[in-house]
DNA sequence: ATCCGGCTTGGGAAATTTGCCCGAGCTGCA
DNA sequence: TGCAGCTCGGGCAAATTTCCCAAGCCGGAT
């Protein structure tokens, strides 16, 4: 491996919003040492782009249609354990953060962070360090202290993803398509989530998701 | 800068993610005719910034924490009816689009749009035209409904009451009992409300009720 | 090595709800 | 008088939800 510090840091941007990618690209490139060598707008393309360009850092938003972003992380890491992945998203739920790290992410930064925090996180991750924004650290700290787990802790990763999409207004079929599952499976998850959380109504489910920060209203 | 009209279009950016604002700013300013004169990261500051800078166009994401973005639109328009507001968000639910337009927005563009579509929308809005991205036009076309009013204006007294209880988490039977109606009638109202508002999902209904202040979450 | 438990994925079948059509009573209004 | 709109519910096919079950997989415990 050559010296990253001398040549700069190559970045693969993964986000489903074209304009957002454009913006990030400009912000990162204005730093001088960061170079966006490729972009992808979905989890499926992310690994292809990674393979083709072998970037130092992958910056990706985990809230994408198609396969879950967590899926993408595992995907990339399974084939390239050296990969450095920085999750960059608007979500800040403790369960999500933990899921991302255990999936193999090297860092987790929210979009509420200052641009400087984001670029510093990219540099940290490129050096092989772990990185997270202050708000994430705070949330993880609180979480580790609280004896009463959030309701979401009872839910598996898939369940959380489905709950998020459901609360966001997606139909069962849309979720099935996004996640490449059968409608039947999504229906079963829907039911499972309700029983696990104790919600007796779809509306209660949405409120629950909202109060847990899974969705914004 | 003497004549704004001759020198380009001044823009106020409202989005709660600093990095995202940075990115938009760079994308817009690279166009030459667009100038970001101010930014705000919440609905409350948006009007202050508007008053201070009198921009030609306000570009804002309605999915912000704190006060609803719709609130912000109404706020600005109430005091400055000339204001041109372009909603720029990742959401693409028909109910939200209609709510935004009836709140006084001049345009609605999703973040899935190409950057060129976004800047063109800004130019259109600056000229006083209405603008929306193709996906939004498609969604509204499908929706193909009555000329607007606030979404709640289409609903009768009973419908609103039932929507409130439903969004609050009540079961169909519970609502029927509370209001002394047959379950069948409540079911019919449920259906009616969905078709009238264009909500395709119970979750969308809850979100709608929440954004209209019918229920708190 | 083996077993256990949990996650994920779906089948099946009964129960319930939805989607959409309908009619009827009531009110206000032209 | 008549129309229009809200309120209330029946009917019925289609879809969804509700439960229960099974199989594969994986990680941890024995």
UniProtKB/TrEMBL annotation, chains A, B:
Pfam families linked: GerE, Response_reg
Taxonomic superkingdom: Bacteria
Positions carrying 4-aspartylphosphate: 61
GO molecular function: DNA binding
Domain HTH luxR-type per the UniProt entry, residue ranges: 148-213
Biological processes, Gene Ontology terms: phosphorelay signal transduction system; regulation of DNA-templated transcription
UniProtKB keywords: DNA-binding, Phosphoprotein
Keyword DNA-binding carried by entry: yes
All copies of domain Response regulatory, residue ranges: 10-126
InterPro entries on file: CheY-like_superfamily (IPR011006), NreC/VraR/RcsB-like_REC (IPR058245), Sig_transdc_resp-reg_C-effctor (IPR016032), Sig_transdc_resp-reg_receiver (IPR001789), Tscrpt_reg_LuxR_C (IPR000792), WalR-like (IPR039420)
Record PANTHER family: TWO-COMPONENT RESPONSE REGULATOR
Name of the protein this chain belongs to: LuxR family two component transcriptional regulator
Species assigned in the record: Bradyrhizobium huanghuaihaiense
């Amino acid at each position: 491996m050559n010296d990253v510090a001398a040549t700069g840091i190559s970045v693969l941007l993964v986000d489903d919003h074209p304009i957002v990618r454009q913006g990030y690209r400009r912000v990162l490139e204005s730093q001088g040492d960061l170079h966006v060598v490729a972009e992808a707008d979905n989890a499926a393309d992310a690994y292809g782009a990674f393979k083709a360009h072998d970037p130092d850092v992958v910056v990706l938003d985990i809230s994408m249609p198609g396969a879950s972003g967590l899926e993408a992380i595992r995907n990339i890491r399974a084939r390239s354990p050296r990969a450095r992945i920085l999750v960059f998203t608007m979500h800040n739920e403790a369960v999500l953060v933990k899921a991302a790290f255990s999936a193999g992410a090297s860092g987790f930064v929210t979009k509420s962070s200052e641009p400087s925090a984001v670029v510093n996180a990219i540099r940290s991750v490129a050096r092989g360090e772990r990185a997270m924004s202050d708000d994430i650290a705070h949330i993880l700290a609180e979480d580790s202290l609280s004896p009463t787990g959030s309701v979401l802790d009872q839910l598996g990763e898939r369940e959380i993803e489905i709950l998020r999409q459901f609360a966001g207004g997606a139909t069962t079929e849309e979720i099935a398509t996004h996640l490449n599952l059968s409608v039947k499976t999504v229906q079963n998850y829907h039911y499972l989530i309700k029983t696990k959380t104790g919600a007796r109504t779809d509306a209660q489910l949405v409120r629950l998701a909202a109060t847990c920060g899974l969705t914004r209203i």
